[in-house]
Amino acid sequence: MDNGKYHIRNAVYIPWSTTIETILLKALELDCQWFILQENEKTIGYINRSTLYKKVKDIGFEKALSLPLEELMMKPILNNDGDISSSEKTINASILKREFEKIESVIDWNIGERISNHIASDKWILKELETIFYNFFHNILITDGYGNITFATAEDDQQYLGKNVFDLERQKEFYPSVTAKVLSTGKREQGLQYTKSGEVFEIESVPIKDNIGRIVRVISITKDSSEVTELTEKLNEVKNLLTSYQQEVISIQQEHSNKKPFIYASKEMENLNNLIKSVASFDTTVLILGETGVGKEVVAHTIHRLSNRYDKPFIAVNCGAIPENLMESELFGYEEGSFSGARKGGKTGVFELANNGTVFLDEIGEMPLHLQVKLLRVLQEKKVKRIGGLQEKPIDMRIIAATNQDLAKKVKEKTFREDLYYRLNVVPINIPPLRERKEDIEALIFYYLEFFNQKYNKNIEINELMLERLKKYSWPGNVRELQNVMERLAITGQDDSFTVNQPLSLLANEVVMSANRKFPQLFDFLEKAEQQILVEAKTKSKNTRDMANLLGVNQSTIVRKLKKYNL
């Protein structure tokens, strides 16, 4: 029977003999349209839910309880052998049973014939149906029982004919596929479906089954939803706003980078500055080496400012300050749904944001090995692929890396990739520590003292004795430590002159002023002490994890404090 695939409703078996009361209780308990009355393996008949409720409504509940079942019951078209009984040819429904008391379907065997007859008698019926679908629905898409697309009304979907919805879902052409969900659950489904271009549609998909319950077709209808359109517009607004915020952050970083000075007076730094100028004009990778606090980021900013990318983004990333499990998504970004907790719409990574600009990877030695592989590919191929993405995007950016570690030693220890090391170490720039360029100390002292005097509206000065003692100090924290000492001097000082009598070893920890000075604000003083502790801990640590262990706090606390004090 070819028309056996047209299902009416689900049903349930009720053992014979039974009563109207039993059937009414089943109707309250179960959401099914048909009640099949069966004695052993023989089907006695069936009762339609709507017919039963109509009778109860017409005559009342009490009277309905006394009705004979024959008054409501219809007989099946098929007997238990599956043959049509000649005396029952006018009956137009039969049942399919999976197991006792569980009905797969009730089937209208004559519906196909009636539809065919109706179409034959009215030549405009197909045109009417086509007009209804095209005007009330945005799109109709039909697949076979395996998910292969056999029909599509929208021109944009014509390209998918013959393709499989499961493959298209994996390729993010549209996702999550409501059709694929129907093929998995076997039920009618609806939901929002996203496309690769960012559009959002409301989809409802309905399965068509054969006479043994297998899905042979899935019809998916795209609804013309003004609510979805409004949500899509709002989503685009949020994306545009996020992009503008990201660009604003980049602009602020750019402005900040242009203000970072490159202060020196020594011959060593003059030679280094000449090297920076010659390297800046060539679009090559640079590896900056030096102890913590020597000014590696300042050198990176200077290279960017002197390069042809000076008006493009400069983004600095501290590889030691980002948790390992977040670093990949921070650098490469991710697509929506790539992992649990992924942001709606995905995220643009640093490499994409810095397109046409410069990325400064500080503490590159802290990058995990699996990310070193991906970074090497970015450097070689000039392409980047988001987490969960299927396509690589071409990018044009310059990488400047920096570290205070011995990368050559790490290569021998197999904790840093040799091929990445040579790819980064095209032009090495080694910044000597402050103790090896004493001439720079005086220039830096006067620069930062003047800077903080202006910032805090002070007029603090130092005498010759103090200057000599400062120049003789070893400065283990390098320029960063000197900067913090000058800031503390500007904040805590009161008189117009500055003298010092304490031992040189205490110079970096205390600032002694005249007896007439006013006491500093407690919180200001505590913050300065906290900064100094962080500076000293950083000089003795390889990364933020070591600092956290040294100071007995969480790594997140160290990262937050370093960011607070711009250390």
Number of strands: 21
Q: Largest sheet at a glance? A: 6 strands, antiparallel
- Secondary structure: helix percent: 40-55%
Rg calc: 39 Å
Order of strands across the main sheet: 8-7-12-11-10-9
How many H/I helical runs?
21
| Sequence stretches where pLDDT stays below 50 over 5 or more residues | 1-9, 77-93, 95-105, 494-518
Shape: elongated
Strand-residue proportion: 15-25%
Please tell me the overall pLDDT. Answer: 77
Going by helix content, strand content and strand pairing, the class is alpha/beta
Query: What is the terminal separation in angstroms?
Result: 81 Å
What does this structure look like?
This protein has 567 residues and is an alpha/beta fold. Helix content is 42%, strand content 19%. The strands form six sheets. Strands 8-7-12-11-10-9 form a six-stranded antiparallel β-sheet, sandwiched between helices. The chain is elongated and about 120 Å long. The chain starts with 6 loop residues before the first strand and ends with a helix.
Features:
5-stranded parallel beta sheet, 567 residues, alpha/beta, 19% strand, disordered N terminus
Quick overview:
The chain has 567 residues and is of the alpha/beta class. The chain is built from 21 helices and 21 strands.
